[in-house]
Design a protein that fits this description.
This protein is mainly alpha-helical. 83% of the residues lie in helices and 0% in strands.
Length: 277
Amino acid sequence: MFNSTDISIYTENLSPDMQNAAQIMADQMDVFSPEGILSLGNETRSRMSSVSTELLDIAIDSDMAPALKQITKVAKQVSRFGSMLRSAKSLARPRAKARLMDSYDLLKVELLRVSGELERDRRNLIRSISLLEDTHRANLEIYQELGVIIEAGNIKLAALHNAPVGYEDHIHRLELKLSDLNTSRMVCRQTAVQIFLLRDSAYSLLDRINSISESVVPLWTTQVALALGVSSISESQLSATGAFNTIADATRTLSQEIASTTKCIAEAGKNAGQIRS
Protein backbone atom coordinates (compact mmCIF):
# COMPACT_ATOMS: atom_id res chain seq x y z
CA MET A 1 0.00 0.00 0.00
CA PHE A 2 1.23 3.50 -0.78
CA ASN A 3 0.77 6.71 1.17
CA SER A 4 0.77 10.44 0.49
CA THR A 5 4.55 10.72 0.93
CA ASP A 6 5.19 8.38 -2.00
CA ILE A 7 5.45 11.27 -4.46
CA SER A 8 9.09 11.39 -3.38
CA ILE A 9 9.53 8.09 -5.24
CA TYR A 10 9.12 10.04 -8.47
CA THR A 11 12.67 11.38 -8.32
CA GLU A 12 14.88 12.61 -11.13
CA ASN A 13 17.78 10.50 -9.85
CA LEU A 14 18.30 7.05 -11.33
CA SER A 15 19.39 4.04 -9.30
CA PRO A 16 22.69 2.33 -10.24
CA ASP A 17 20.76 -0.46 -11.96
CA MET A 18 18.76 2.05 -13.98
CA GLN A 19 21.95 3.90 -14.95
CA ASN A 20 23.48 0.63 -16.15
CA ALA A 21 20.33 -0.10 -18.14
CA ALA A 22 20.54 3.39 -19.69
CA GLN A 23 24.15 2.79 -20.75
CA ILE A 24 23.26 -0.52 -22.40
CA MET A 25 20.30 1.11 -24.18
CA ALA A 26 22.52 3.97 -25.39
CA ASP A 27 25.02 1.51 -26.84
CA GLN A 28 22.22 -0.22 -28.75
CA MET A 29 20.37 2.93 -29.78
CA ASP A 30 20.14 3.55 -33.54
CA VAL A 31 19.73 7.26 -34.16
CA PHE A 32 20.69 7.13 -37.84
CA SER A 33 17.75 5.14 -39.25
CA PRO A 34 14.45 6.98 -39.94
CA GLU A 35 12.60 4.96 -37.30
CA GLY A 36 15.36 4.93 -34.69
CA ILE A 37 14.53 8.25 -33.06
CA LEU A 38 10.81 8.29 -33.94
CA SER A 39 10.14 5.01 -32.11
CA LEU A 40 12.17 5.95 -29.03
CA GLY A 41 9.92 5.55 -25.96
CA ASN A 42 6.71 5.16 -27.98
CA GLU A 43 5.74 1.83 -26.39
CA THR A 44 6.21 3.25 -22.89
CA ARG A 45 4.23 6.39 -23.69
CA SER A 46 1.38 4.36 -25.16
CA ARG A 47 0.96 2.73 -21.75
CA MET A 48 0.53 6.18 -20.23
CA SER A 49 -2.74 6.50 -22.15
CA SER A 50 -3.97 3.24 -20.61
CA VAL A 51 -3.16 4.53 -17.12
CA SER A 52 -5.12 7.74 -17.79
CA THR A 53 -8.13 5.75 -19.03
CA GLU A 54 -8.04 3.48 -15.98
CA LEU A 55 -7.80 6.50 -13.70
CA LEU A 56 -10.85 8.08 -15.31
CA ASP A 57 -12.84 4.84 -14.97
CA ILE A 58 -11.95 4.62 -11.28
CA ALA A 59 -13.00 8.24 -10.73
CA ILE A 60 -16.39 7.51 -12.30
CA ASP A 61 -16.85 4.27 -10.35
CA SER A 62 -15.99 6.07 -7.09
CA ASP A 63 -18.90 8.50 -7.44
CA MET A 64 -20.81 8.29 -4.17
CA ALA A 65 -23.57 10.76 -5.09
CA PRO A 66 -26.20 7.95 -5.28
CA ALA A 67 -25.20 6.77 -1.81
CA LEU A 68 -25.62 10.29 -0.42
CA LYS A 69 -29.05 10.54 -2.01
CA GLN A 70 -30.21 7.30 -0.41
CA ILE A 71 -28.76 8.16 3.00
CA THR A 72 -30.40 11.59 2.95
CA LYS A 73 -33.74 10.06 1.94
CA VAL A 74 -33.74 7.66 4.87
CA ALA A 75 -32.60 10.41 7.25
CA LYS A 76 -35.66 12.44 6.27
CA GLN A 77 -37.87 9.43 6.96
CA VAL A 78 -36.30 9.01 10.39
CA SER A 79 -36.90 12.70 11.10
CA ARG A 80 -40.55 12.43 10.05
CA PHE A 81 -40.92 9.37 12.25
CA GLY A 82 -39.52 11.29 15.21
CA SER A 83 -41.83 14.24 14.60
CA MET A 84 -44.83 11.94 15.11
CA LEU A 85 -43.82 11.61 18.74
CA ARG A 86 -43.62 15.29 19.59
CA SER A 87 -47.14 15.34 20.96
CA ALA A 88 -47.47 12.91 23.86
CA LYS A 89 -51.27 13.15 23.78
CA SER A 90 -51.52 11.89 20.21
CA LEU A 91 -49.68 8.71 21.10
CA ALA A 92 -52.64 7.43 23.08
CA ARG A 93 -54.96 7.59 20.10
CA PRO A 94 -55.44 4.31 18.15
CA ARG A 95 -55.35 6.09 14.82
CA ALA A 96 -52.09 7.81 15.69
CA LYS A 97 -50.65 4.52 16.91
CA ALA A 98 -51.66 2.82 13.62
CA ARG A 99 -49.99 5.58 11.59
CA LEU A 100 -46.89 5.16 13.71
CA MET A 101 -46.76 1.42 13.07
CA ASP A 102 -47.28 1.92 9.32
CA SER A 103 -44.44 4.41 9.29
CA TYR A 104 -42.28 1.96 11.23
CA ASP A 105 -42.94 -0.84 8.73
CA LEU A 106 -41.87 1.38 5.82
CA LEU A 107 -38.85 2.70 7.67
CA LYS A 108 -37.71 -0.78 8.63
CA VAL A 109 -37.63 -1.79 4.97
CA GLU A 110 -35.68 1.36 4.07
CA LEU A 111 -33.13 0.78 6.83
CA LEU A 112 -32.49 -2.75 5.57
CA ARG A 113 -32.21 -1.52 1.99
CA VAL A 114 -29.82 1.32 2.74
CA SER A 115 -27.66 -1.03 4.80
CA GLY A 116 -27.34 -3.31 1.79
CA GLU A 117 -26.53 -0.42 -0.54
CA LEU A 118 -23.90 0.92 1.84
CA GLU A 119 -22.26 -2.50 1.91
CA ARG A 120 -22.24 -2.55 -1.89
CA ASP A 121 -20.68 0.91 -1.99
CA ARG A 122 -18.11 -0.16 0.59
CA ARG A 123 -17.05 -3.11 -1.57
CA ASN A 124 -16.84 -0.85 -4.64
CA LEU A 125 -14.59 1.59 -2.81
CA ILE A 126 -12.30 -1.19 -1.61
CA ARG A 127 -12.09 -2.39 -5.22
CA SER A 128 -11.32 1.15 -6.41
CA ILE A 129 -8.55 1.55 -3.84
CA SER A 130 -7.02 -1.74 -4.96
CA LEU A 131 -7.18 -0.60 -8.60
CA LEU A 132 -5.57 2.70 -7.64
CA GLU A 133 -2.69 0.85 -6.06
CA ASP A 134 -2.23 -1.14 -9.28
CA THR A 135 -2.45 2.06 -11.32
CA HIS A 136 0.15 3.71 -9.10
CA ARG A 137 2.57 0.84 -9.61
CA ALA A 138 2.07 0.95 -13.39
CA ASN A 139 2.50 4.72 -13.44
CA LEU A 140 5.69 4.54 -11.38
CA GLU A 141 7.08 1.86 -13.68
CA ILE A 142 6.39 4.07 -16.72
CA TYR A 143 8.04 7.04 -15.01
CA GLN A 144 11.15 5.02 -14.27
CA GLU A 145 11.29 3.57 -17.78
CA LEU A 146 11.06 7.06 -19.26
CA GLY A 147 13.92 8.11 -16.98
CA VAL A 148 16.10 5.30 -18.33
CA ILE A 149 15.21 6.13 -21.95
CA ILE A 150 15.92 9.83 -21.43
CA GLU A 151 19.26 9.08 -19.77
CA ALA A 152 20.17 6.74 -22.63
CA GLY A 153 19.27 9.48 -25.09
CA ASN A 154 21.41 11.99 -23.22
CA ILE A 155 24.36 9.57 -23.29
CA LYS A 156 23.88 9.10 -27.02
CA LEU A 157 23.50 12.84 -27.52
CA ALA A 158 26.80 13.51 -25.72
CA ALA A 159 28.51 10.96 -27.96
CA LEU A 160 27.12 12.67 -31.08
CA HIS A 161 28.34 16.06 -29.85
CA ASN A 162 31.84 14.61 -29.39
CA ALA A 163 31.83 12.94 -32.80
CA PRO A 164 33.14 14.53 -36.00
CA VAL A 165 30.91 17.07 -37.72
CA GLY A 166 28.08 15.91 -39.89
CA TYR A 167 25.57 14.75 -37.24
CA GLU A 168 23.76 18.08 -36.74
CA ASP A 169 20.46 16.82 -38.13
CA HIS A 170 20.56 13.70 -35.96
CA ILE A 171 21.44 15.79 -32.90
CA HIS A 172 18.53 18.17 -33.55
CA ARG A 173 16.02 15.33 -34.01
CA LEU A 174 17.24 13.56 -30.87
CA GLU A 175 17.03 16.76 -28.82
CA LEU A 176 13.42 17.27 -29.92
CA LYS A 177 12.57 13.67 -29.04
CA LEU A 178 14.17 13.96 -25.60
CA SER A 179 12.22 17.18 -24.99
CA ASP A 180 8.97 15.32 -25.75
CA LEU A 181 9.95 12.44 -23.47
CA ASN A 182 10.77 14.84 -20.64
CA THR A 183 7.32 16.38 -21.02
CA SER A 184 5.75 12.91 -20.86
CA ARG A 185 7.71 12.14 -17.73
CA MET A 186 6.52 15.35 -16.10
CA VAL A 187 2.91 14.44 -16.96
CA CYS A 188 3.51 11.00 -15.46
CA ARG A 189 4.56 12.63 -12.18
CA GLN A 190 1.47 14.85 -12.21
CA THR A 191 -0.64 11.74 -12.76
CA ALA A 192 0.81 10.34 -9.54
CA VAL A 193 -0.52 13.37 -7.66
CA GLN A 194 -3.97 12.75 -9.16
CA ILE A 195 -3.81 9.11 -8.13
CA PHE A 196 -2.99 10.10 -4.54
CA LEU A 197 -5.78 12.68 -4.55
CA LEU A 198 -8.38 10.16 -5.72
CA ARG A 199 -7.02 7.53 -3.33
CA ASP A 200 -7.34 9.89 -0.36
CA SER A 201 -10.93 10.73 -1.36
CA ALA A 202 -11.77 7.03 -1.68
CA TYR A 203 -10.32 6.30 1.76
CA SER A 204 -12.23 9.23 3.25
CA LEU A 205 -15.49 7.99 1.75
CA LEU A 206 -14.75 4.45 2.90
CA ASP A 207 -14.22 5.67 6.47
CA ARG A 208 -17.46 7.62 6.31
CA ILE A 209 -19.44 4.68 4.95
CA ASN A 210 -18.00 2.41 7.64
CA SER A 211 -19.03 4.98 10.24
CA ILE A 212 -22.56 5.20 8.84
CA SER A 213 -22.91 1.41 8.55
CA GLU A 214 -21.51 0.69 12.01
CA SER A 215 -22.83 3.69 13.95
CA VAL A 216 -25.45 5.81 12.25
CA VAL A 217 -27.75 3.11 10.83
CA PRO A 218 -27.74 1.21 14.15
CA LEU A 219 -28.46 4.56 15.83
CA TRP A 220 -31.47 5.06 13.57
CA THR A 221 -32.67 1.53 14.33
CA THR A 222 -32.31 2.14 18.06
CA GLN A 223 -34.11 5.45 17.72
CA VAL A 224 -37.06 3.76 16.03
CA ALA A 225 -37.16 1.10 18.75
CA LEU A 226 -37.18 3.81 21.41
CA ALA A 227 -39.98 5.60 19.59
CA LEU A 228 -42.13 2.48 19.56
CA GLY A 229 -41.49 1.99 23.25
CA VAL A 230 -42.37 5.58 24.00
CA SER A 231 -45.65 5.24 22.11
CA SER A 232 -46.99 2.94 24.81
CA ILE A 233 -45.98 5.17 27.71
CA SER A 234 -48.35 7.68 29.24
CA GLU A 235 -47.65 11.41 29.06
CA SER A 236 -46.54 11.62 32.72
CA GLN A 237 -44.29 8.57 32.40
CA LEU A 238 -42.84 9.97 29.18
CA SER A 239 -41.51 13.04 30.96
CA ALA A 240 -40.12 10.96 33.80
CA THR A 241 -38.24 8.44 31.70
CA GLY A 242 -36.45 11.04 29.58
CA ALA A 243 -36.80 8.71 26.60
CA PHE A 244 -38.04 11.51 24.44
CA ASN A 245 -34.85 13.48 25.16
CA THR A 246 -32.85 10.43 24.11
CA ILE A 247 -34.62 10.38 20.78
CA ALA A 248 -34.03 14.10 20.29
CA ASP A 249 -30.32 13.65 21.05
CA ALA A 250 -30.12 10.77 18.60
CA THR A 251 -31.76 12.86 15.89
CA ARG A 252 -29.27 15.68 16.41
CA THR A 253 -26.39 13.21 16.21
CA LEU A 254 -27.48 11.66 12.95
CA SER A 255 -28.12 15.14 11.50
CA GLN A 256 -24.49 15.96 12.19
CA GLU A 257 -23.43 12.70 10.53
CA ILE A 258 -25.47 13.54 7.43
CA ALA A 259 -23.90 17.02 7.22
CA SER A 260 -20.43 15.51 7.54
CA THR A 261 -21.20 12.91 4.89
CA THR A 262 -22.52 15.56 2.51
CA LYS A 263 -19.32 17.61 2.85
CA CYS A 264 -17.11 14.54 2.41
CA ILE A 265 -18.84 13.34 -0.75
CA ALA A 266 -18.99 16.86 -2.21
CA GLU A 267 -15.22 17.20 -1.78
CA ALA A 268 -14.67 13.78 -3.36
CA GLY A 269 -16.85 14.76 -6.31
CA LYS A 270 -14.82 17.96 -6.76
CA ASN A 271 -11.56 15.97 -6.70
CA ALA A 272 -12.90 13.45 -9.20
CA GLY A 273 -13.97 16.32 -11.45
CA GLN A 274 -10.46 17.75 -11.35
CA ILE A 275 -9.05 14.38 -12.38
CA ARG A 276 -11.53 14.02 -15.25
CA SER A 277 -10.50 17.44 -16.59
